[in-house]
Amino acid sequence: MSKRSGILEFAVLGLLRESPMHGYELRKRLNTSLGIFRAFSYGSLYPCLKTLVVQGYLVEETGPEPDPLTVPLAGRRAKIVYRLTAAGKEHFEELLAHSGPDAWEDEHFAARFAFFGQTSRDVRMRVLEGRRSRLEERLERMRASLARTRERLDDYTLELQRHGMESVEREVRWLNELIETERAGRPGGTKPQPAPGGSDERDNQQQSGGEPGPRVTRDD
Predict the structure, then answer these.
(1) pTM for the whole thing?
(2) Band of the pLDDT at 108, cuts 50, 70, 90?
(3) Which residues of 136-147 are buried (b: 16+ CB within 10 A; e: fewer)?
């Protein structure tokens, strides 16, 4: 199974844990609630659903028959509804408990974070701290690369490099706040926050817990 299809499987199981859904509703939830899946199409979703049915994690059920008074097309078929089985719920619990390096990567972390409300506190902490460590390593590499090459870069490429570094620094600060909230055990869990790589409104907010890397300034 590819990493991307594994993320889709995780998200589908998580959404169906909330309630049974038909394929169109699932796709809509993946695109709107979990925006990281905007690139997925029916061509990706339905093979995933069929695989999960074969594996025994989902069952297909026929939804209510369409009302003949409101459906103009005769013979219109009822929608197939997908429901999580006991085995599917158990499998999703196993996936939720995973906190290894895969859970720290960009797309997988975003999917994992979307289901943090169903994840135990110790697993949330391991995922958040692992993600922060991964980003701090990335930030160091970016700084080293910029130090080596900045004299050879034109203004626009240099600005793009700075933008990338600022995005990573912003997410590290965001993670610091989330980790501090988890450690403090505050009621209500995590505070509403923009997703990683969100708007620059986060730049002016006070950091909580840990020190960020040096701020990259413009050479105006």
Answers:
(1) 0.72
(2) confident
(3) bebbeebbeebe
